[in-house]
Amino acid sequence: MRTAFYISDGTAITSEVFGHALLSLFPTKLNHVTIPFVETKERAMEVKVEIDAARSEDEGRAIVFHTFVDNDLRDIIASADAMEYDFLNYFTTPIERELGVAAVPKTHRTHSMHEKTYDSRIEAMNYALANDDGGNMKNMKDADVILVGVSRSGKTPTSLYLALQYGIKAANYPFVEEDMDNLKLPPEIKAVKEKVFGLTITPQRLSAIRNERRANSRYASTRQCRIELKEVEMLYKKERIPYLDSTHFSVEEISAKILAETGLQRHKY
Amino acid sequence: MRTAFYISDGTAITSEVFGHALLSLFPTKLNHVTIPFVETKERAMEVKVEIDAARSEDEGRAIVFHTFVDNDLRDIIASADAMEYDFLNYFTTPIERELGVAAVPKTHRTHSMHEKTYDSRIEAMNYALANDDGGNMKNMKDADVILVGVSRSGKTPTSLYLALQYGIKAANYPFVEEDMDNLKLPPEIKAVKEKVFGLTITPQRLSAIRNERRANSRYASTRQCRIELKEVEMLYKKERIPYLDSTHFSVEEISAKILAETGLQRHKY
Questions:
Q1: Could you tell me where the beta strands, DSSP code E, fall in chain A?
Q2: Dmax of chain B from CA atoms?
């Protein structure tokens, strides 16, 4: 099996995301190795040796995705016996021409706490944790978005992803069995109804997820799941709450869809 | 101000990460617009019109980063009056040559729940939430890593990031004031000491963070922060617990450093 390396003088997150997106187009199985914080010549030499070694052990030379600010470090990595993709630099010159300004390379330029939105992402994450699962109804007015839905419909992971990645303050509130007889929005949420976004899911998928948590319980039964989901979807329609079915979507996809539908701005750049 | 667009028939996360990393090299201020899930010709035409409109309102044409699987949709976006970067496709041919196989474009190939590691990331996130702040000492043996440190030293955001991004089960345990007289690892954690990783921070930064939470409290005083940090660092040294100073690092950087130091494998590909 050949090896794909993701290497950087920073976190290597950009190399990982780019390389992963590119390699996922191919059916070939690869061994993946991420090496962040290659910040000295000595370390770069060690990494070059590791890349070279990957060739002799494998069925071909390694594939290397790298982003370096320091040219000397980059040159050491580029001297390894591998197919190397210096993918950011490749596009730098055309952007310089287009914008009419020179690039200003900075170490740790992305994914560092010097990103101007860093503090707002951490603040949003603390908000999401404090307001998970209806934890603090009096804070609902501070939310950018309030996710509602039955237990295990994807509210918590989506709230945390929106916060950590995009600095969006997402509260979430669960509709539980006891609410179902006369389902309505709690007054604290009704007061800021324009912020509410609903999640739903198929009874089959919900039952499977709940069974992992409490096997063979009434809570996990398809019948109970169906009753709860029907009530909740009726409420969404009655209150004209926008909602989506999370059954076939990842947290990343649900988050992107919520942003697209609500028009909320990412605090990312 | 010119506009940068990040467009895709999927989440557009790859376009965002790549475009953001590239544009962060430049001092130019830009307006950023992400448009995910462009899945029909009608929608692509609307987006083309939006890109064209960005030119006339701005000081130059838009800069467009896009990833499309469907060639017809791509062609519509590419026909807009903009500088466009079809950055994944650019690198596809050389990879095909290197691997000796053709690319197999699939919609929603990345950032979807069909990624084989998706379930493990959600499971890890549920684990991190259930085992946040020493929440469940009997689960410590199931952790991939146990982060320890004083209150507000960065344990919770790092645990959640490791889980959501990398599928790593990270528990965390806080050392609180009451522990300080005779600081030691709780027996449940001592039993799996090889999994423990410590965080520390400067007293000044810790005091600033705590002051945001409880202004002018003893808890937030530099003196109290200094006492707690000194005890905790002594424990790290005595127990030979690897640790890092989170003061100048983002959650992304702390996570990447922990992975590099512990050798934990990302459940990502």
A1: 3-8, 31-35, 62-67, 82-85, 145-150, 170-175, 196-200, 243-245
A2: 69
pTM, to two decimals: 0.87
ipTM of the prediction = 0.85
Contacts of A95 in chain B (CB under 8 A): 22-23, 25-26, 63
Q: What is the 3-state secondary structure (H, E, C) of chain B?
A: CCEEEEEECCCCHHHHHHHHHHHCCCCCCCEEEEECCCCCHHHHHHHHHHHHHHHHHCCCCEEEEEECCCHHHHHHHHCCCEEEECHHHHHHHHHHHHHCCCCCCCCCCCCCCCCCCHHHHHHHHHHHHHCHHHCCHHHHHHCCEEEEEECCCCHHHHHHHHHHHHCCCEEEEEECHHHHHHCCCCHHHHCCHHHEEEEECCHHHHHHHHHHHCCCCCCCCHHHHHHHHHHHHHHHHHHCCCEEECCCCCHHHHHHHHHHHHCCCCCCC
CA distance B12 to B20: 12
Instruction: Tell me the C-alpha distance between A224 and A217, whole Å.
Output: 10
Verify whether the Cβ–Cβ distance B109 to A24 is below 8 Å: yes
A–B CB contacts, 8 A cutoff, strictly below: 197
**Tens digits of per-residue pLDDT, A222-266?**
999 999 999 999 999 999 999 999 999 999 999 999 999 998 987
Q: Which of B32, B98, B111 sits opposite A269 (nearest CB)?
A: B32
B-chain residue closest to A108, CA distance: B253
Residue B250 in contact with partner chain A when CB distance is under 8 A: yes
- Which of the 8 DSSP states describes residue A24? T
| Residue tagged 């509260």 (tokens) | A171
Closest-CA distance, B169 to chain A, in angstroms, reads: 15
Residue range A118-262 forms a domain whose CATH class is alpha beta
